[in-house]
Predict the 3D structure of the following.
Amino acid sequence: MSTKDLFVDCECGVRTAVSAGMAGSTLTCRCGQTIALPALGELRHIAGRDRHVTNAAELVNKAINSGRLPGTTCVFCERPSSREIRCEVVCESSAQKQTFLGEQGDLLASFLRILFPLPSVSASDEPQTVGHNTIVRPVIRLCHSCQATLGNPRETKTLRKLMDMVPEYSKLFREYPYAEIHFVNATE
Ligand SMILES: [Zn+2]
Ligand SMILES: [Zn+2]
């Protein structure tokens, strides 16, 4: 990783690229917030971790966009199945969420996104980034009889178990162990 990958995230959701020489100093975000930059080691750590998450998320999106995932067979019994479980994984990509503004900061970030929408990336392999978070939407094939055995995918525990059966999805959790999983829907 080169030092040109260093960045800092503001509570408003805006990411600003920084140079190694700026470590330990402060900068002013375009929202007006003053951001204290950590030491260079910490900046590198943040950049490295973010890159891992992005890579894992990109891998998932590539696999889904190319049709390689969810494939044509049930994730558990490997018999042909057209039944799909759709979910959403929210990977918090900043090393630590600033707690200064907390919930209000998130609201402010949502508001700013309405005022200044980011270019649409829905058709690309680039994971969707919302504020500090990277969101991917994995799809899993699971037949009815395996669901009866494994449990309800609406429950996070079951969903996580299913996702761990798919290498691309489990990589996501290795890179980002605290990712949140949400059930979206399932086909009949
Ligand atoms: Zn800002
Ligand atoms: Zn099955």
Residues 50-186 form one domain. The first helix runs from residue 40 to 65. Residues 94-101, 119-123 have pLDDT under 50 and may be disordered. The chain has one domain: 50-186.
